[in-house]
Amino acid sequence: MKKILDSILILLFALFLTMAHIGLFNILPTPLNTLNITFLVLILLIVFNGSGKIVWFSFILHFFMDIYSISPFGVYIISGTLSILFLYWLHKGFFTNQSLLSVFAITLTGLVIFRILYIVLMSFVADILIYNLFIKFAWELLFTMLGTIISYFLITTFSKKFTSSFL
Q: Phi/psi at 35 (nearest 5 deg)?
């Protein structure tokens, strides 16, 4: 019974996170609407939780994102899940601590991998304007990194459970 309840809560959290991402995309002004809430939460879960279940949560989350997006089905699932899987391996094997520098590097690496995979998969099905896309991705990278670093700082400052280990 507990596993069923946990699974339902994970599905509801993934659906809520998808709706928050879509809602903020439509509400925030132009440069701020590029903040990728899903990656922000997934990166913080990788850093603070470190469980392999995050990859499955990423699959469910990107499935919901794929349902609500205008891109062809499977683009978000493949690019999002593979980038989070790579970030999970990177965090377990290379960035083993919870420092601000490792959060910065994981966010940068994850978003770059996600967007490279996204561009490659989208280039198979549609003609895309690379210039406008790179500007949008640069804004996304900037605001997602700022959001992740600020969230990390707030969590480590006000939480007794999660402490940061600076280099």
A: -60, 125
Kindly give, in sequence order, each residue whose CB lies less than 8 Å from that of residue 103, ignoring residues fewer than 6 positions away: 43, 47, 148, 149, 152
Question: Rounded to two decimals, what is the model's pTM?
Answer: 0.89
Contact 59, 35 (CB under 8 A): no
- Residues 6 or more apart whose CB falls under 8 angstroms from that of 156 comprise 98, 162, 163, 164
Report the SS3 class of residue 1. coil
Over the stretch 128-147, which tens digit does the pLDDT of each residue have?
777 788 888 999 999 999 99
What DSSP string describes 78-115? HHHHHHHHHHHHHHHHT--S--HHHHHHHHHHHHHHHH
pLDDT of residue 166: 53
- CB-based contact 41:18 (threshold 8 Å): no
